[in-house]
Amino acid sequence: MANTKQIKVEVAYARPDVQILQRLQVDEGTTLVQAIEQSGVLDKFPEIKLGEQKLGVFGKIAAADTVLRDKDRVEIYRPLIADPKASRRKRAEKKQPPVDD
Predict the structure, then answer these.
(1) Full-prediction pTM beyond 0.70?
(2) Which of 7, 19, 96, 100 might form a disulfide with 70, Cβ 3.0–4.6 angstroms?
(3) Cβ(20)–Cβ(8) under 8 Å?
(4) Which residues lie below 8 Å from residue 15, measured CB to CB, with a gap of 6+?
């Protein structure tokens, strides 16, 4: 049986109260979701729903079946609490001076 080459990857997840960056070695050809499963992050954070949350590599959205490369950082993104456009609009409205008639 041939030896499978190992690569180093990181799995990152963050909540407002805690962040984790789990380093691990995986077999070459490992997918994004396989690395997450092997990292143990799902056991530590049961709120993660892989089928529902977006995933990425180095800040770029990626599919669950993306094959990882050496030194990739897998990221699990939380859903947004507020719509960023609506939040910016509200802040801009607060900064505008009142209109005199």
Answers:
(1) yes
(2) 7
(3) no
(4) 45, 78
